[in-house]
Amino acid sequence: MRRKFSALLVAVTAAAAATMPVSTAHAADGYDRCPDGHYCMFSGLDGTGDMIVLRGNTPDLAALGMNDRAKSDWNRTPSTIYLWSDANYSGCTAVTSAGPTGKGNFFPTYQDFFSSVQFDGPGGPNCGTPPGEGR
């Protein structure tokens, strides 16, 4: 009798598990794809499109398929990020600060513009803020 009861209990438990709803996790999208402690660049506005995730200096974004392609970013590191117009930290720079101001779309003039990324500088000549544009 005990053996029949154990078999019945296993069958009932299996049937109950099969009918329980399955919870699926919501996949991160937009900026939320960027992991904490990293710097992310996106090929689309508002954190959409292709994304690269960086934790250190990157002299040539072409190696990651993001050269002259980024339109938005999020700096989730404690570092100041210097975005260089040309590979190997040359040309002019724009800065992405750490913290809540380190997330957003690039000025239209600077979309599809950057070629290398440097953490904590020293930076170079400022690319400047295009007239009439704000971030």
How would you explain this protein's 3D organization?
The chain is an alpha+beta fold and 135 residues long. The chain has one helix at 2-19, and strands at residues 39-42, 51-54, 72-75, 81-86, 90-96, 103-105, 116-119. It has a domain at 31-119: Gamma-B Crystallin, domain 1. 13% of the residues lie in helices and 24% in strands. The strands form two sheets. Strands 2-1-3-6 form a four-stranded antiparallel beta sheet, with no helix packed on it. Strands 5-4-7 form a three-stranded antiparallel beta sheet, with no helix packed on it. A hairpin with a 3-residue loop joins β4 (81-86) and β5 (90-96). The protein is globular and about 40 Å long.
Compact overview of the structure:
With 135 residues, this protein is α+β, with helices and mostly antiparallel strands.
Q: Got a strand count?
A: 7
Mean pLDDT across the residues is 84
Overall 3D shape: globular
Q: Helical element count?
A: 1
Order of helices and strands: HEEEEEEE
The CATH class label of the domain at 31-119 is Mainly Beta
Helicity level, as a percent range?
10-25%
Helix/strand structural class = alpha+beta
CATH topology name of the domain at 31-119: Gamma-B Crystallin, domain 1
Distance between the first and last residues' Cα? 75 Å
Beta-strand portion reads 15-25%
Query: Major sheet: size, sense and barrel closure?
Result: 4 strands, antiparallel
CATH architecture of the domain at 31-119: Sandwich
The CATH superfamily of the domain at 31-119 turns out to be Crystallins
List low-confidence stretches. Answer: 4-23
**Over all CA atoms, what is the radius of gyration?**
24 Å
**Main sheet: strand order:** 2-1-3-6
